[in-house]
Amino acid sequence: MRPIFALLLAATAMPALAAPPTIHGYGSLAISAQGDRVATVDSTGPAAKPMITIRSVRGGKVLRSFDPCRGACALSGLTFAPDGTLAWLARDRSAGTVTLAVDDAGKPRTVATIKGIAQTPRFAPDGKRIALLVTIGAAKEAGAAQAGVRQIGEIGEKSDEQRLAVFDLAGAPVAADAVKPVSPADRYIYEYDWTPDGAGFVVTSAPGNGDNNWWVATLDAVDATTGAVRTIAKPTTQLNFPRVSPDGKTVAYIGGLMSDFGSVGGDVWTVPFAGGTPQNITPRAHLTVTSLVWTDRVIRGTALRGDQAGLFTASSGQGDGFGWSRPASLSAGDAKAAWSTNGLTVATVAQDFTHAPAIFAGPVAAPVQITHDNDAVPATMTARSISWKNEGFTAQGWLLAPLGADPAKKAPMITIVHGGPSAANTPGFGGGYGDLLSAGYYVFLPNPRGSYGQGEAFTAANKRDFGGGDLRDILTGIDAVEKVAPVDDARLGLTGGSYGGFMAMWANTQTNRFKAIVAGAGLSNWVSYYGTNGIDQWMLPFFGKTLYQDRKAYEDVSAVNFIGRAKTPTFIYVGERDIEVPPTQSIEYWHGLKDQGVPTSLVIYPEEGHGIRAPANAADVRKRSLAWFDRYLKAGQ
Predict the structure, then answer these.
(1) E strands along 442-510, which residues?
(2) Residue 84, phi-psi category: left (phi > 0), alpha (psi -120 to 50), beta (remainder)
(3) Which member of 3, 173, 233, 256 has the greatest number of CB atoms within 10 A?
């Protein structure tokens, strides 16, 4: 399930509780092969036209800024060719098309038009062709977190197909009706990398429904001419970021226990391109690798270790390979850092709770800040990292406090559980917690067992233990917070979305410590959920068996089976067309609370998926959530 609350903040389901101040954004960052330039999609607020901006890595001087579609499209997918040519994607939602274009002597030139959606353009090693993931005639946005198609007619018989297409840059523009994907139909391609000889690709793929089958995806080779598919390996873990060595003999990827495509974390694995058994080359690392590239002869990437996000080198031979880092979130294009071909220069966008985004670039040992557009944007909170021990594990989280909070005055606190469960609460400027902080609440963002940042054993520690050790870690974390901050234990609130929504529902049946709860897109009954959701494959790595093979394991962690213990007032919300966690889960829980006489409210938002995205609906969730907490945590003050 998507890491919802923390990731609508950095990517997923519970919306931000307050709009952040207008800041300068740097999206889709890419670096040239030579490492001398970076390109980003720059924005200065939701109403501003996005611009493609090219900067010098040395000092950040703006070399060029342009709008290739005059504000009438969304820009993404920036990527450089070996010779420095820049390509991008321009999406026209009203027309239902995506244009793949390149910068031709300072003027945009269309390479192809796709009727549907497209992502991840990549130049061939010789720079003469460019590949693209295309979903022609897409019925929905890519990804299970997006609003699903309506379940009418004969269901399960037709799914969107994301396929690889290859375009010759020397040819005439390819019209939408002439786009011919090279990879076969009925095989969903999630990620890919060119082989060094340009003859094909290494991909992660699965037949059938792309939303559901990522958890059983295989590592495959695809011929760039014929589209023939050959299986390289069938890993026992989930996998992301397939990358081919410069000599074409080896494939590296991130493998681990991951609850969602896109929420990446694990160890580095390698396998011969010819096929074989994958080998974990970082088996004892006390960190989580979050993105991967293969530069020159070195595997590089990013990793999360405790409260630090940083650069990672798998072949360093020293320590765990963790390098330059900071207590921040990193982002760049389809990864978290972009590297020059020789691996010596890196660029990333860094931000934390009190510092707005800035581009850092330069030598891998010590990239420096090269943009300063947001230097004057004021912080809206204070933040500190909190670490604690529980049952042999070390956990970490973030404590946010209102600016100017009186250290002598007790205050209420809201604990926010991230989704996943394989994910982590990581810093983001403002974080989306403005309403809560402005209202005088402290905010606690724990990373209990099951989270990223402490190594793969920590992430896997909640297998067949949902709501067990992770809930005990969270409660122990609250104890740790209360030792260092003036938090009133009698006025604690709890919220979260997706897996965090499950934890909110579940905690209500396990403890009376919280006095108000908000549950977004939560799971209340794992038995009924298994049979009605659109991504049932995700549960198998965690439960070990299907519902029909081990029903009791699913019953034992279903909040509805313990609803008689629930006492805490709970506001519940969910999207009408959520296929990750269907709204029936919220209805079932709401019905149980109503029967028990527990104060509750349920709102189902029309047309929404696994995440409340429409501005009016998101504002309504913020308003209702704050009012709910105020009602039960501030009454009688």
Answers:
(1) 442-447, 487-497
(2) left
(3) 3
DSSP letters of 173-209? Answer: PBPGGG---SSPTTEEEEEEEE-TTSSEEEEEEEES-
CB burial of residue 17 (10 Å; 0-12, 13-18, 19+): buried
Sheet order of strands, 218-223 included: 187-194, 200-207, 218-223, 229-233
Q: How far apart are CA 563 and CA 569, in angstroms?
A: 13
pLDDT (tens digit per residue) in 270-304 = 999 999 999 999 998 999 999 999 998 899 999 99
Q: Is 26 helix (H, G, I), strand (E, B) or coil?
A: strand
* Reduced 3-state DSSP string for 283-346: CCCCCEEEEEEEECCEEEEEEEECCEEEEEECCCCCCCCEEEEECCEEEECCECCEECCCCCEE
What is the rounded CA–CA span in Å between residue 285 and residue 256?
Answer: 12
E-strand spans in 548-605?
A: 570-575, 600-605
Q: What are the residues whose beta carbons fall under 8 Å from the beta carbon of 496, sequence distance 6 or more?
A: 4, 5, 14, 416, 417, 418, 419, 502, 503, 504, 519, 520, 522
For residue 9, what pLDDT is reported?
A: 34
Weakest mean pLDDT among 134-138, 215-219, 506-510, 600-604: 134-138
Q: Is 6 helix (H, G, I), strand (E, B) or coil?
A: helix
**pLDDT tens track for 418-434:** 999 999 999 999 878 98
Quick one: tokens of 3? 């890491």
Which residue, among 264, 244, 266, 245, has the nearest Cα to 255 in the 3D structure?
266
Q: What is the DSSP string of 503-517?
A: HHHHHTTT-S--SEE
Tokens of 496: 């979260």
Q: Which residue's structure tokens are 């207590």? A: 327
Sheet (strand 163-168) strand order: 74-80, 86-92, 97-104, 107-123, 129-136, 163-168
pLDDT at position 7 is 33
**Torsion angle defined by CA atoms of residues 94, 145, 52 and 77, in that order, rounded to the nearest 10 degrees:** -100
Q: Residue 83 corresponds to which tokens in the numbers above?
A: 């010779």
pLDDT digits (tens, 9 = 90+) for 358-403: 999 999 999 999 999 999 999 999 999 999 999 999 999 999 999 9
Q: Which two tokens stand for residue 486?
A: 């003036």
Instruction: Name the residue among 74, 89, 196 with its Cα closest to residue 135.
Output: 89
| Measured distance CA(399)–CA(384) in Å, rounded | 5
Q: Is the pTM of this model over 0.90?
A: yes
**CB-neighbour burial class of residue 389 (10 A; exposed 0-12, middle 13-18, buried 19+):** exposed
Instruction: Note whether 140 and 146 are within 8 A (CB).
Output: yes
Alpha-carbon span 187 to 170, nearest angstrom: 29
Reported confidence tier of residue 201, pLDDT bands at 50, 70, 90: very high
Helix (H) or strand (E) holding 551, with range, is: helix 551-555
Q: Which secondary-structure segment (H or E) carries 166?
A: strand 163-168
